[in-house]
Write a structure and sequence with these properties.
Elements lengths: L6 H27 L2 H24 L11
């Protein structure tokens, strides 16, 4: 691991988790409302939030491996 897990790390990670959670909530609401245009926008926002979180972890030296069911 490149970066120690300290209060600063946890604070930044919590902010990224909160941003991802908020983006997913918006995506969920657009889906429930049947609003395709908003859904597409919210999907991009959620993907960007998720990418930011994964990038932060990668830069901290935490290897996150995603497995896709076959």
């Amino acid at each position: 691991m490149h970066q120690p897990i300290d209060d600063h790390f946890l604070s930044k990670y919590r902010a990224l988790l909160d941003a991802e959670d908020l983006a997913f909530d918006e995506l969920e609401h657009a889906c429930e409302d049947g609003d395709r245009i908003q859904f597409d926008k919210d999907m991009v926002d959620w993907q960007n939030a998720l990418a930011s979180k994964l990038h932060f972890l990668q830069n901290a030296g935490i290897d996150v491996r995603l497995s896709v069911p076959t």
